[in-house]
Amino acid sequence: MRAKLRAAAAAVKRFCKASRRAALWLLAFLFTLLPAVYMNNIYGYLPILTLLIVSLLSLGYLAVLGRSVGAQDKSLLSSCMRGTAMEFRVEVENRCLLACPRVELSFFMTDLYGGRDGGTSTVITLAPREKRVFTFDARFDHLGRYSVGLDKVTVFGPLGVLSRTLPGGAEHIVEVTPRIWELESLNLSQQVTTEDSRARTSSTLDGADYTGVREYAVGDPIKNIHWKLSAHTEGFLTRQMETFGSTGVTVILDLCAPDCTGETGMCLYDALVETAAAVCNRAISRGLENDLNFFDRRGAEQRLEVRDSALFDSLPSLLPPLVRRAEDYPVEQLLIRSGRALYARSNVVLCTSRVSESTVKLLGDIKLGRRTPALFFVLPRDAYGRERDALLQPLHLLDELGISYFVLTSAEELQ
């Protein structure tokens, strides 16, 4: 929708420019027509004849320039870190013997959502047989995959009224990688989980080893339901199997923010991704194994083993843009699966911008499983007053459970 609105606005702008030029030419035509009407002799027709001859010559001049002026993309763009600029190079050449009074180069850059994010333009002149190299810096302030390139080349005639638009050059895909922050405030547990906290000994019943039972939760396998005990209760009971673990960190990245768009949404996206990367980097610095869990651009669940920071450079091609609908990014599935994994890591860190009582309950279940959960809660930077208080309200339950959490509004606050 944003891309369509911008395309429509650009079309209206082009139409307004063309209308202005046509109006100026028509006004000049009417002005030069007046002597012919009032004088009705050869001298009275000289102004309008001069205007027509000059206009025809200008059309011919422009036709020659349109065939002789060209632009060639010389850029070598691939990837850069967020907040840095990359140099874009274009070689413009005038191959004919006529001077080019005005050439306008228009560049474009997409935003996180794929729409054209404005752009920039510059105006130059070219002497006969002149070749010039023009450079500009494209700054990328937000994470993601972007397209950048030369949109079009507009060549103007001698009078500046008539013009001809030539297609631009190649389109480059630039991947903006996250900045890596030092996260000293996060304490990671190195305690190994050996069994579930609900029971200390395992017993055998119906041919299966388990440590106890608990209430059924959505996502539990049907084969784990204890049917005999469930028959004596109002609900279903699930066997709680013995679990084993290892020191390490499981990072769950939630990229869904239903109410955030535009610049606010892009800043929120930066904070979420760079927070997850900072947690993984913290684990690497402490010699702990870690994995990053998320849903990719196709909606498939991904679990990446992060062994060094070089993996962060591939995140822009794997991570989806900010997701608007909660059903398209079921992060609670990742929490449930991580909490019930047979061989689980000792730390579970959730990076999200949406916290509800069910989220707190899942984190509490992870802690009951003798593991160490932590929450990084990223708030929209425009959330103030009552809106901010409402977003923070579920966090008091984390205080009661003794679960660590961090609240931030931008990635820079990680430092």
N- to C-terminal separation? 36 Å
Largest sheet descriptor:
6 strands, mixed
Report mean pLDDT, rounded to a whole number: 80
Shape: elongated
Record the SSE blueprint.
Elements: H1 2-39, H2 42-68, E1 69-73, E2 79-81, E3 85-94, E4 100-109, E5 120-126, E6 131-139, E7 144-156, E8 163-167, E9 171-177, E10 203-205, E11 208-210, E12 212-215, H3 227-230, E13 237-240, E14 244-253, H4 262-285, E15 289-295, E16 301-305, H5 315-318, H6 331-339, E17 343-352, H7 357-368, E18 372-378, H8 385-392, H9 395-401, E19 404-408
Helix pairs in contact: 1-2, 6-7
Question: Can you describe this structure?
Answer:
This protein is of the alpha/beta class and about 425 residues long. Helix content is about 30%, strand content about 30%. It is built from 9 helices and 19 strands. The strands form 5 sheets. Strands 2, 4, 5, 7, 8 and 9 form a 6-stranded mixed sheet that branches. A hairpin with a 5-residue loop joins strand 15 and strand 16. The longest helix is centred in the first third of the chain and has 38 residues. The radius of gyration is 32 Å and the shape is elongated. About 30% of the residues are buried.
